[in-house]
Amino acid sequence: MERYEELISRRRQEICERMADALARAGRGADDALLIAVSKTVGTDEVIAAIRAGYRTFGENRPQELVRKLADLSERDGLPPVRFDMIGNLQTNKINAVLGRAQLIHSIRSQHLAEAVSSRAARRIEAGELEAPVDVLLEVNVSGEESKSGFAPDELRACMGQLVELMGIRIRGLMTMAPRGDKDAARRTFSGLRDLRDELQVAHGIVLPELSCGMSEDFEIALEEGSTIVRLGRVVFDPSFALQ
Ligand SMILES: *Cc1c(COP(=O)(O)O)cnc(C)c1O
C-alpha cells in the first residue's frame, strides 16, 4: 500500500495541475471546482491511501458500498473527516440508507425519484433525524444517447416547476455524463448542460451553482465548459491509466 499511496499521491498532483490549467483557460480560479475521487472499483484500503494522498471527497455509485465504506472508515483511528457523495443509480428502497450519509446525491434521474427522496427526507426531518433538506443534483441526458439515464432536457423544462416545490430536497444544480471517446460531443454535452442550467435559473428565479460533469477522459473539457464538480475514478485510483 505504501508504494500505491506514493503513486496516487503523485498522480493527485498531476490531476490538480491539469485542473488548475483547464480552469485558468476558462478564466476561472483553481478553487472553482471540486474533485471527487470515485472509489466504486476499489476497497477501503485504497480509499485510506487516497485520504493520505490528500483526497477528502469520494463518490460511490452503489448505496450498499457507500454505507459499507463509511462504516469501515469510522472504525479506523486518526483519519480526517471525509465526504461521500452518491453518484449512481438510486433505487427507492435504498434511499433511506443514503439519507444522512451521502452529502450530495448527484443522480436524481426522474420526477418519481425526486419525489421519493423528498418525501423520505421530509419524514426524517420531521422526526428530528435529519437536520435539513438533502442536497441533490438533477441528472440530465444532454447527449440523448439511449444508453444514458436522466431527464431529457424537455422533460426537465416541463417538470422543474414542480421539482423546486419539493420540501425535502434542495436542488443544487445539474449532472451529466458525456458520450465516450468523442471530445467534440463531450464539449457539446457539457456546454449544453451549462446552457440548460442558465435557462432554468432564469425561468424559475433560482440559483443552481453546481454542474457535476467530467470524468477521467474528459474532465479538462468539462472544466473549460463550467463544471464545478469533476468525478474521477480510473485516473485517481489506477496508476496505469494514462492521463491524456
Ligand atoms: C464510474 C463513474 C465515474 C468515474 O469514471 P472514470 O471514467 O473512471 O473517471 C464518474 N461518474 C459516474 C456516475 C460513474 O459511475
Q: Could you describe the 3D structure shown?
A:
- With 244 residues, this protein is of the alpha/beta class.
- The protein has one domain: Alanine racemase (TIM Barrel, Alpha-Beta Barrel).
- Helices cover 45% and strands 16% of the residues.
- The protein has nine helices and eight strands.
- The protein has helices at 2-25, 44-53, 63-74, 95-98, 111-126, 153-163, 183-204, 219-224, 234-237; strands spanning 34-38, 57-60, 83-86, 104-108, 134-139, 169-175, 210-212, 229-232.
- The strands form two sheets. The chain has a four-stranded parallel sheet. The chain has a four-stranded parallel sheet with strand order 4-5-6-7.
- The two termini are 25 Å apart.
- The model has no long low-confidence stretch (mean pLDDT 97).
Summarize the structure.
With 244 residues, this protein is α/β, with parallel strands linked by helices. 45% of the residues lie in helices and 16% in strands. The site of pyridoxal-5'-phosphate (PLP) has 13 residues, from strand 8 and helix 9.
Which secondary structure elements does this structure contain, and how are they paired or packed?
Blueprint: H1 2-25, E1 34-38, H2 44-53, E2 57-60, H3 63-74, E3 83-86, H4 95-98, E4 104-108, H5 111-126, E5 134-139, H6 153-163, E6 169-175, H7 183-204, E7 210-212, H8 219-224, E8 229-232, H9 234-237
Parallel strand pairs: 1-2, 1-8, 2-3, 4-5, 5-6, 6-7
The protein binds pyridoxal-5'-phosphate.
